[in-house]
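In response to a reviewer's request, we include the raw inputs and outputs for one of the modeled complexes. The four entities were modeled together in a single run.
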Amino acid sequence: MASIKDVAAAAGVSVATVSRVLNAHPSVSADARARVLAAVESLGYRPNAVARSLRTDQTHTLGLVISDVLNPYFTELARSVEEEARALGYSVIIGNADERPDLQDHHVRNLLDRRIDGLLVSPTDGGSPLMLDAARAGTPMVFVDRWIPGVDVPVVRADGRAAVQDLVAHLHALGHRRVAIIAGPAATTTGSERVEAFRAALAAYGLPLPDVYIGQGDFQAASGRRVTEGFLDLPEPPDAVFAADNLMALGALDAVRARGLRVPDDIALAAFDDIPWFVHTDPPVTAIAQPTGELGRAAVRALVDRIEGRPAASVTLAARLVVRRSCGEAPETARIIPTPSLPPVQRSTT
Amino acid sequence: MASIKDVAAAAGVSVATVSRVLNAHPSVSADARARVLAAVESLGYRPNAVARSLRTDQTHTLGLVISDVLNPYFTELARSVEEEARALGYSVIIGNADERPDLQDHHVRNLLDRRIDGLLVSPTDGGSPLMLDAARAGTPMVFVDRWIPGVDVPVVRADGRAAVQDLVAHLHALGHRRVAIIAGPAATTTGSERVEAFRAALAAYGLPLPDVYIGQGDFQAASGRRVTEGFLDLPEPPDAVFAADNLMALGALDAVRARGLRVPDDIALAAFDDIPWFVHTDPPVTAIAQPTGELGRAAVRALVDRIEGRPAASVTLAARLVVRRSCGEAPETARIIPTPSLPPVQRSTT
DNA sequence: GTGACGCTTGGAATCGATTACATCGAGACG
DNA sequence: CGTCTCGATGTAATCGATTCCAAGCGTCAC
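The model returned the following structure tokens for the whole complex.
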């Protein structure tokens, strides 16, 4: 592969001049510029990003560590992150943690070793020492979707409380009284928050959320299935189940179907995180939709702000309920319930 | 961030010795090794991968350029690629081409600039000059799923011909005679091959595949919808539609549903590429399943072979038909039809 | 006792860029 | 006409590692 020296030799100038041409430095004569450009062209020269990074201490690369690539929510997030990053001149290296803290740390370490300019994380657990150290050491960092409390890192996420209230209102209106939740890991903020929001919304209707109706899942399909089977084995099974993410909802659907039961006639089902497939399932699944694309873009903008020395802002967007048929035939005419109680965008500087 | 010099100073040795300890070079005294390790520990030193790459001309990184991250098939492929790569000591940088040749080239250029050790591509089009140059220039490269004919690069893919024959047999047995296909872009091998396999299989039953029954899609959901609408507008619409990928099948399902029609009663539907969601759609979709995970792993092994100087082998695995309910109630008892005509694995050295 | 050998170790070159500093020449101005 | 300024250019240091080469030193055999 041709190096800058080869170009310099071919153009009859020094490497400094070649570098100046390549970096659009003003003081280069038109003649020298033309000769360099010609040499670059004829040699098919491309600057070595590795060498450049070593010298400038910038890789123009963002690291993104997500909890689970197979989850369409995170796939869409990854896609929007890459898009916005590309628009701002950055590349993205994605690490898939598969909901495993050890894998998460592996990827964080790897990305740090590669001297990425900044890190976007949706933490799998509550506090990897590695990540805390990195944050303290000043690595530009932004949490997306999930976060770690007590760390001074901007958070970009969706607030689902209003939408959960709408969901509970919807379930209540359809006559469901024994409602259960398939929760995510308590170590994740989304895991615990969704349970709390659900419990609070139920309380407003005087409905309890007994412990046997809180199933412990791990955001993966298998756990949704397992928990749902547990619910169905109960002497008094719930008449509605809320899955804290889409994969666990899929597992729940599996479990219900395996028993020869039907949604929503035998049991209602709703999910956090809406995905295109929910329109086509049997029945279409009522879900809480996050503004995923906007979340990804906002997270990148915040991170790049931080990297380039501007103040980075935390961002909270609103999620909304999308009613379909999995909780019963809806009496409402509106299929999407807006959540006027929460402003569409809240910004706070961190 | 601490550098090797800091470690050397702290341990009272030269940088050469530190480097030897870090790289497990044999001739280092136990005493020196202990002091270096202690210094590494207390400084929290981590070698700078950028500097190391510059010097050794190896990044231990693989590039993966896929056609569309939102397609669950490619997501699963990406996941298995990353897994196998990690097991072999490599990281993966994923580029999403979104079925756009310009984006594909952007990512290839970017990855080449970063001096990745090897490139895994599922080409969006038939022949980007950039990719041809890279292949000729000796960049270790492997095509996965799709390939570019006439380039001397190993190909790892699934052969779907036998499964397509099984699908046609299935459709024929259920009485479907006017069968149509939503094809992928002719510029991709998978796009054209699937049409040819389908046409050939139909011919064996004396069934035609008229041009009006070949809809031109682009592997994205919207095109599946558009093409299906066109089919339904025909004076004599098909009674079965085969979508050449899962996203277009989703679009087709949309279109059928939007007309108030039902699958399979009004029109049968089958797809290439099976995904977990197809079990839960209304109705469950009959699909041709590729051994996606094995494909990804085999591709990485082939690429790493090439990188590390061993001969790389092309690999062809068999796809299989998974019968569900979207083509009509199946008379067979077996839900998975094995394809005994094709051996499970074919290997050929390239 | 001494030369050879082998194990450790350090010095310094190197990878391919960027960039501070020095130099050179030409034009401007008094 | 001398000097000052400024634009264009080159030299060389530098980023953080790896690795070749030479040197130091202890041990062993003769």
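As requested, we also summarize the result in words. Residues 331-335, 337-350 of chain A have pLDDT under 50 and may be disordered. Residues 13-17, 20, 26-29, 32, 51, 53-57 of chain A lie near DNA strand D (CB under 10 Å from a C1').
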